[in-house]
Amino acid sequence: MIRFTDFSLTYPEAHSPTLRDVNLTIGQGLLCLVTGATGAGKTSLLGAINGLVPHFTGGHVSGSVVVGGRNTRETHPSEMADLVGYVGQDPARGFVTEVVEYELAYGMEQAGVAPAAMRARVEETLDLLGIAHLRQMPAADLSGGEQQRVAIGSVLTAHPQILVLDEPTSALDPGAAEEVLAAITRLVHDLGLTVVVAEHRLERIIQYADMVVVVSGDGTVASGEPRLAIGESAMVPPVVELGRAVGWDTVPLSVREGRIQAAKLREQLTEPTAVSLVPGPSAVTAKRLSVTYGPVVAVRDLSIDLNRGEICVVMGRNGSGKSSLFWALHGALAPDRGSVHRAGPVGLVPQTPGDLLFLPTVADECGQADLDAGLERGTCRSILDEVVPGIGGESHPRDLSEGQRLALVLATQLVTQPDVVLLDEPTRGLDYAAKRNLVAVLKRLAGENRAVVLSTHDVEFAALAADRVTVMAEGEIVADGPAAEVLTATTLFAPQVAKVMAPLPFLTVPQVMEAIA
Amino acid sequence: MSRPLRRLHPGAWWLWALFLAAAASRTTDLLLLALLVAVAWFMVIVRGSEGSGRIFRIYLLVGLFVLVLRVGFRVVLGGGAAGDVLFTLPEVALPSWAVGIRIGGEVTVDEITAGLADGARLATLIICVGAANSLADPRRLLRSLPLALHSVGTAVVVAIGLVPQLITSVIRVRRATALRTVKSRRLRMRRTVGPVVDDALDRTLALAVAMEVRGFGKPLGAGSRTVFAFTTTGLGAVAIGLYLVLDGTTGLGFALVAGGLAATLFGLRLAGRRRLVTVYRPELWRASEWVVAAMGLLVLVVVIVIGRSNPTALHPVGVPAPPLYATFAVLAAALPAWLAPNETARGLRPARLRPS
User: Fold this and answer.
1) Do A432 and A499 belong together in one domain?
2) For B133-181, how does the pLDDT look when each residue is reduced to its tens digit (9 = 90+)?
3) Distance between A359 CA and the closest CA of chain B, angstroms
4) B274 — contact with chain A (CB < 8 Å)?
5) Same domain? A182 vs A292
6) What is the pTM assigned to this prediction?
7) What is the ipTM, given to two decimal places?
């Protein structure tokens, strides 16, 4: 169905090829998972399937990509619409029309499909993806999971044989991600579509994949059956890590496979000693806080005490009030009711850290931060090197990877020596390596006797980083306590290791290995 | 006769409202203008699309603002018209070269009524356009453009959609500036503009990709350029021609209109034969649409005829006295509230009360 032959791609002004000598065949009806570090070239590989690379992006290409008998070198991406459906990283940015129903029809209108057929296909797709109740809604008003399904629907109506999805669940909370994944697996099984998905968070999708393509940093590509393809790779979900560490015969890919093999292990181990939180001195206290936007209540009568030396992870659905709480704790947003008492300065890294960057180079940004804080030149730079070493001073902040940009903004916030560091969804777009690095940075910040508070949808990240977990819903706190307690209480927020080891409240692989030893 | 259950073609509402606006531009009778506003408002309440009340309110406020501004200017910068002096403002002494300009001084009744008439006319015009906007989303109207103008319509729809996104982006970035103290004044503009422009560029690229992969801008062969050339130059000629006709250069004007229409029709026929794109759930133009548009046209025609036979009838001095036929015509323009087809079987219900 999709065949790459000796395919290489070098972007203009790049020193080395993004993709190098790719030889890859993806068969019909398979669910193919593309993985690799941030910036390794996953998106470029996906774009090559429908000709966006190089027709839209530019770049020097050698070798060939043949999809369904069409050579992408000669075929324009718009002429591939009936063969390949492509959904980019942020579907909300790709909506053309005002209403869901018309959005679904847009591709067919371009293809000149007869009105009667269009009507039938729209209805069929609305049902297939479970979005019939949204048909009259403006696409911009939908939740993330709904938008993703509408975006998938909008390319499905052209009846493509291949569906290409770039990180379809990365911005979604666990519940919404499940909805989208359920829709994707249904398309593979019921419609026999060939689906190619790029994803960082393998734990969500690897068990459904028929093949895995690993794009490595030097642009080469390895592919094969999932267990083989991930091989010795360090970028694997926790359940695989557990299997490797314990030394099981077959590496488990799903919680189910892990649980079956862990039966004996669960009997051997005893419950780990419960870590109770020893609250440090309070760094920021909010009392009966409320934040409203017109008729919408974002934070409702909420009281919270955040302590020094503690990493607190705030979880909850999109729109549950996490961001508003952070802004109110910081003080940049005045709460409608209630009070916030701060022991010292507070730093906040917003959800889109790029909003705080406006100078042409990393060095300029660091220099400006030093200047504004009245510190010696080079302070911010040295903090940045502690957080993520090796970022070139002359690079443009826009060209940095997500993790690097986050580090730069964090560094500009840390120059003010805040007692409290708030990070709004810092894990978006980070690969496993960058996440591990971020955990180390956060632990160090907490070790310096600061309160660290972050929100995330990533339960695996929460399991690694959190001392304390707070769950928000409808602007209220619905659960608050030690990480082990809160994360094992519900299946939706349980990390893979907890699911495998339940009812024993283990959260991470190192914890299990410690108990075995 | 029961009305069909469907949406009225957006073009019908736009024609109806624009005819009312054109009629408003030809009178300064305050009562007649008030009646026009009332009919437009009534129609928005009973037949407006969901959430349209909010849009219409903005137009009402703008109308009011224009009215106040006009009267205000007349009072402050009045030309010293004859008539009864209402009150006297302190006059600013201007140098001798500023002959003919006066600030402050005596304010006459005529001055104020003239300002009112002027302002009310403009305000009514604006409110009628607002009614058109509220009765049918302009994006729906663009969807019903002839196929040959499809790309132009898409461009406008995309542009309309980008405005709210740009606003949210500005709000977000401005809020973020509170998180980082930057002392340099020089950078104040840059720190908002930079990220917003970056964001807008990213969005535009993402949208371009999304449209491209769904088949927009597919190479369509040689014919599409010809179609585009014929329709755009044709419509351009019609516009210029209409302007000339209104301006009095009738001969050349009519020639341009006729030629332009011919070119446009030719282009459209060419496009129709090629079937470049199709339209999902096309809006229908049937008898009801003719009726609604005709109700609007009736008002304009009556106003024009009255204006021709008795030029002062529509521009009363002192107490407004709208001609009887014009009043009836405007009242008749409210009939589409009952005559136009309904989307639901529920009949007339104020738009605001509909559950969202």
Assistant:
1) yes
2) 899 888 788 778 776 677 777 777 777 777 778 888 888 888 888 888 8
3) 8
4) no
5) no
6) 0.81
7) 0.87
